[in-house]
């Protein structure tokens, strides 16, 4: 009986792990169907972005944890949207959340917008670029002072520009 429970438990854990590690695709959201200052056709976005950046920015994919070099970036500078080069985060608000994604406690002013995200049976707040509508990540209420927020961003959705 114990072996069966252990096997069922390991199977459930493995399934949950795969759920969070595999890239996911969703239909276009309100953020992507709205009008933004920077707009491109789907074919143009595909040609402008790497396949990974296209998946995240245009189809709300998620990069695998600990796969982004930006998670380990420690120099001063700005993190810009990979879709339109808008500065969205400052290195002054970056911190190591130990989650495997670049995390910040505050975005730059007038750089990001929020959308309710109820995919996967949970309520989250999506963060997207105000200039191109590209999906950057999500914000959670478990971050450090002074905001208590954790902007958990996909590194592939941003580029880093040193100061």
Query: Could you tell me the strand content as a percent range?
Result: 15-25%
By CATH reckoning, the class would read Mainly Beta
Q: What's the CATH architecture?
A: Beta Complex
- What is the residue-averaged pLDDT? 87
What does this structure look like?
This protein is an alpha+beta fold and 163 residues long. It has a single domain (26-162), classed as Peptide methionine sulfoxide reductase (Metal Binding Protein, Guanine Nucleotide Exchange Factor, Chain A, Beta Complex), CATH 2.170.150. Helices cover 25% and strands 25% of the residues. It has helices at residues 2-21, 30-33, 42-48, 51-59; strands spanning 77-81, 87-90, 94-95, 103-104, 112-117, 124-129, 135-140, 150-153, 158-162. The strands form 2 sheets. Strands 3-4-8-7-6-5 form a 6-stranded antiparallel sheet. A 3-stranded antiparallel sheet has the order 2-1-9, with no helix packed on it. The longest helix is centred in the first third of the chain and has 20 residues, at 2-21. The protein is globular, with a radius of gyration of 17 Å. Mean pLDDT is 87; it is low at 16-27.
Brief summary:
It contains four helices and nine strands. By secondary structure, it is of the alpha+beta class. The chain has a single domain (26-162), classed as Peptide methionine sulfoxide reductase (Metal Binding Protein, Guanine Nucleotide Exchange Factor, Chain A), CATH 2.170.150.20.
């Amino acid at each position: 009986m114990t072996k069966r429970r252990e096997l069922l438990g390991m199977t459930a854990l493995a399934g949950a792990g795969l759920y969070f590690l595999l890239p996911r695709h969703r239909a276009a959201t309100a953020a992507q169907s709205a009008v933004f200052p920077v707009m491109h056709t789907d074919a143009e976005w595909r040609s402008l972005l790497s396949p990974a950046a296209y998946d995240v920015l245009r189809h709300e994919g998620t990069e695998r944890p600990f796969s982004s070099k930006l998670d380990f970036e420690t120099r001063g500078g700005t993190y810009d949207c990979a879709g339109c080069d808008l500065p969205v985060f400052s290195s002054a608000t970056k911190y190591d959340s130990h989650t495997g994604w670049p995390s910040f406690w505050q975005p730059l002013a007038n750089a990001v917008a929020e959308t309710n995200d109820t995919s996967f049976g949970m309520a989250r707040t999506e963060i997207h670029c105000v200039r191109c509508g590209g999906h950057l990540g999500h914000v959670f209420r478990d971050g450090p002072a002074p905001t208590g927020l954790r902007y958990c961003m996909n590194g592939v959705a941003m580029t880093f520009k040193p100061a």
